[in-house]
Amino acid sequence: MIYLMGNKPGWKCSTEHLLAHTGISSKQTLSGVKKSLKERGWIDYAEGEFIEVKWDRIKEQMGNSENKGKSENK
User: Fold this and answer.
1) Considering only CA atoms, which of 39, 52, 44 is closest in space to residue 10?
2) Least CB-packed of 19, 20, 51, 54 within 10 Å?
3) Which residue(s) pair with 44 in the sheet?
4) Reduced to 3 states, what is the DSSP secondary structure of residue 24?
5) How far apart are CA 34 and CA 40, in angstroms?
6) Paired residues of 52 in beta bridges
7) List of residues 6+ apart from 56 with CB closer than 8 A
8) Taking 80 as the threshold, does the pLDDT of residue 22 lie above it?
9) What's the distance, CA 67 to chain centroid?
10) Which stretch of DSSP H or E encloses residue 30?
11) Which of 40, 51, 49 is nearest to 4 (CA)?
């Protein structure tokens, strides 16, 4: 997820790209990770085509923590 989040919104990549750039060596492991992240709503993917980060959903689930910290420190 950290690798995916390090890219600009709207960026998409293939399974092969993730395997080559993340150190994950097994398509089976990556498949399980993708399934969990999709169920959480953090990514969308079409098998063999693309993986896309769902930034709005992540921010929604995190409760926009940047604003929470600012209001608590006042």
Assistant:
1) 52
2) 20
3) 52
4) coil
5) 10
6) 12, 44
7) none
8) yes
9) 21
10) helix 27-40
11) 51
Contacts of 6 (CB under 8 A, 6+ apart): none
User: The tokens of 60 are what?
Assistant: 């929604």
Q: Residue 38 — very low, low, confident or very high, per pLDDT cuts 50/70/90?
A: very high
Task: State the amino acid at position 31 in one-letter form.
Answer: S
Quote the pLDDT of residue 66. Answer: 55
Q: Which residues contact 7 (CB under 8 A, 6 or more apart)?
A: 13, 53
Torsion of CA 23, 44, 56, 37, to 10 degrees: -50
Residue 62: C-alpha distances to residues 35, 43, 49, 54, 56 (Å):
20, 15, 28, 13, 10
